Amino acid sequence: MTKKLENKVAIVTGGARGIGAASAKALAREGAHIVLVDILDCNQTKQEIQDLNPSSKVFIYNIDIKEREQVEKVVNETAEYLGRLDIVVNNAGTCSRFDLESMTDEMWFRDINTNLRGTFLFSQAAIYPHMKQQGSGKIINISSISGIMGGPISGKKGTESGRSGPAYAASKGGVIAMTKWIAKEVGELGINVNSIAPGPVETEITKGMNYKLDQAIQRIGTPEDIAEAVVYLASPGADYVTGEVLKVCGGAAIG
Ligand SMILES: NC(=O)c1ccc[n+]([C@@H]2O[C@H](COP(=O)([O-])OP(=O)(O)OC[C@H]3O[C@@H](n4cnc5c(N)ncnc54)[C@H](O)[C@@H]3O)[C@@H](O)[C@H]2O)c1
Predict the structure, then answer these.
(1) Directed axis angle between helix 118-125 and helix 68-82, to 10°?
(2) In the structure, which protein residues have their CB atom closer than 6 angstroms to any atom of ligand 1?
């Protein structure tokens, strides 16, 4: 069977674990070469990719996505060494669960700068100049249903309920708005920009949280559920899709 992403080059941020690791593996399964970006060690993901698809090249960058110079280095070296840049999955993220009353500036800036500014930095560096010169590219921004609904649970204090905090919701709402904004700018360059908004997914971010899962599909999501949506948006099958927010949430945010 032909692979959907044969010899495409993808950068996946937050690739050490969780949704990023699952997305990197799913893209490699479809034939892509992968650049893993994280502050954590990505060697386990690298090994799993190589077991899955030995012909997939895998590179690791241990950087902080909040740092412009480091982001530009990753993007420029990827384009130089691998000869192209087709896909960027802006997935790395942090989630503080403090409520409004107890949220500090430090927590505010951590979530906003990681989730929103990190996505901005990678999108800018990938599009200008690489994807623009290539005349093609797929940017996939992992947001959250928190960015649509203001946190999926009402009335409860963050740290007690697992409700994501106001900085997280604001950052993810910002990612969604920025996705639509950039999509309108770069459609004429042959570049698609979309977002995936997951509901609760079983990863380190949700560990120990007791979600009620009062939703149409009554189970918590898996990283693989999100990874398959990433493959779809990265694939030629989604060439006519841009500026969209694909909710992958088991129906937690229908409407
Ligand atoms: N798990 C969920 O329920 C859920 C729901 C909605 C959205 N999301 C989003 O999905 C994405 C992935 O989260 P996950 O659930 O896999 O959690 P995770 O904590 O397992 O993965 C996040 C990864 O991002 C990396 N990271 C964080 N800050 C970074 C930085 N400054 N520079 C480089 N890497 C950094 C972490 O080291 C980690 O490997 C996040 O953007 C998160 O907000 C998750």
Answers:
(1) 40
(2) 14, 16-20, 38-40, 64-66, 91-95, 114-115, 142, 144, 198, 200-201, 203-206
What is residue 155's predicted lDDT score, i.e. its pLDDT?
66
Q: What is the pLDDT of residue 221?
A: 97
Distance in angstroms (rounded) separating the CA atoms of residues 191 and 128: 11
First-residue to last-residue Cα distance in the chain: 37
Which of 128, 168, 211, 232 does the annotation list as catalytic?
168
- Which own/partner pairs from 109-112 qualify as long-range (CB within 8 Å, at least 24 positions apart)? 110/167, 111/165, 111/167, 111/168, 111/170, 111/171, 112/167, 112/170, 112/171, 112/174
Annotation says 128 is catalytic: no
pLDDT per 10-residue tile (average), the chain, 255 residues: 94 98 98 98 98 97 98 98 98 93 94 98 98 98 96 66 88 98 98 98 90 90 98 98 98 92
pLDDT score recorded for residue 52 = 96
Domain limits at 197? Answer: 9-248
The CATH number of the domain holding residue 198 is 3.40.50.720
Domain total in the chain:
1
Token reading at 196: 């995936």
**Residue 229 is assigned to a structural domain of this protein:** yes
Going from the Cα of 150 to the center of ligand 1, the distance in angstroms, rounded, reads 18
